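Issue 218. Parser rejects a valid record. Input:
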Amino acid sequence: MDVLIKSGRVIDPASNLDAVSDILIQEGKIKSLGQRLQPPSSRIPVIDAKNLLVLPGLIDMHAHLRDPGNPEEETIASGTRAAALGGFTSVLCMANTDPPVDNPAMVKYVTSKARLEGAVNVFPVGAVTKGMAGVELTEMGRMLMEGARAFSDDGRPVKSASVMRRALEYARQFDTLIISHCEDLGLSEGGDMNESYTSTILGLHGIPALAEETMVMRDIMLAREFGRVHIAHVSTARSVELIRKAKAEGVKITCETCPHYFTLTEGEVEGYNTQAKVNPPLRGGKDLEAVVLGLKDGTIDVIATDHAPHHEEEKKVEFGKAANGMVGLETALALVLTELVGTNALPLKKAIEKLTVNPAGILNLKKGTIKAGWDGDLIVVDPNKEWTVDVSKFASKSKNSPYQGWRVKGSVVYTIVGGKIVVKNGQISI
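Output the parser choked on:
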């Protein structure tokens, strides 16, 4: 649980730090930062981080680990190793498992399993409603006591505005967070991809942008009156604009987007590429530009992966029957560094902010910064190393990624969780 990192460029948006420094971690905590630090013992491993970045461990506030219920797609063991390889030291796992995480016993199951098998910190997201049926609220207080960090019926919207109102009011009592999957099923039902000229040409049922936007507007109005809400996987230009205006008016709302919404468009579906089938669907070029602008001006607070592993058999079918989702834990950071930082769309510090201190703040999580006394969760990254995405090398059990063969820049060299080195020289070391 002890390690000394030497001569790295330390970037910590939380403390506005960008400087070459050493960092000493002892007993799982950051002991000190400074110049020419020496290891207190010859047994403490020393990492030479010269010409490398040292960053707070990344926080993914939206991932699916498929445990319980679908071990052929992912497990906590495999998913957290994928997270570690991608630079994530903390992961929030969504509740839409089989059975769903909708009661204290299920939360305890996830936290216990994570302690035994997890390579990184795992924080369960509890369901908002029992059975994720959108009718009866779960026992949020007791679930929080067992380790739940937030609540979401992600994968399904909370269709009833009345139920959503009660969820926000209930969550406010515990100062916890509701994460909203914004989808009007009446508009999206039966859809396969973004509704557009491309969907018409391909003969696929379209999902209009309005299916997301109407629910975003509903939740903004509810948040204005009843408590804070976090909008998941924002994908459309109008959603970004609605959230921008709501924030300017003082509404307690935050949001996230995912790498596929600022790197891919609906054109990726051409050829009926099921690896590009996701919900919300990939949108048009103007939507992508709006998402990038939203990241740049602070409208979009967080970059999350929405890591959604699926077995090969669920993707190698006709497009309309294929499962929605793609894996993202092992490619997210490289896509941010390549497609946002590398193109000057986003400064490095601001990009890291959206992967560290911002999700930590939204979740009231004491993570996401490099300060003495805080947990020794850090990563060492080579920002200049180029590599080619090869899904066969993923630690994730599932390989459903549209980025196969992409050339990207930025590689995780070390991942340290609570002072324990879990990735060393780019390989899992536990």
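Fixed in the parser; the record now loads. The chain has two domains: 3-54+374-428, 57-362.
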